[in-house]
Amino acid sequence: MGMMGSLLLLVVLLLCIASSAVSSPLPIIFSDDTKPSAYEVLESYNFPIGLLPKGCLGYDLDPDTGEFSAYFNGTCSFSLEGSYQLRYQATVSGRISAGRLSDLRGVSVKVLLFWINIIEVTRHGDQLEFSVGIASADFSVDNFYESPQCGCGFDCDGASSSAFDRSNLL
């Protein structure tokens, strides 16, 4: 799995896709008082919650087209496993359907010295395929059962429980 594959694994943790295969998830229809969280919406489309970092403030979703936008309190950046660096913009958007996030905007992974946009995440059984356009890499969904925290990812010993630590914003 070369360097590009390792970087894409980090990207997978960013966005945000799920634990068990579902043949055809149903679109979510809800009223404002029962609106599920963005993390619950991911799960309803068979994606793990770990594709989104902690601290999502809200979202918009058109159940007919799958167009979505998820909102955060500023830009979020963190390292995973001490080497992969991911960055989420204050708004992450794209299109969601059963087992596929496409037309993604607002999530990038650092490869060497460059930030590369993750444009698609596709689920194939227990594997998630992350694409940056010219390359892709597969990772197990087991890596995305928890959401990372801005600033510290999964290595947050002694860190504030706040999802967005402004000292770590870009």
TrEMBL record:
<dbReference type="InterPro" id="IPR007493">
    <property type="entry name" value="DUF538"/>
</dbReference>
<feature type="signal peptide">
    <location>
        <begin position="1"/>
        <end position="23"/>
    </location>
</feature>
<keyword id="KW-0732">Signal</keyword>
<protein>
    <submittedName>
        <fullName>Uncharacterized protein LOC103707226</fullName>
    </submittedName>
</protein>
<dbReference type="InterPro" id="IPR036758">
    <property type="entry name" value="At5g01610-like"/>
</dbReference>
<dbReference type="Pfam" id="PF04398">
    <property type="entry name" value="DUF538"/>
</dbReference>
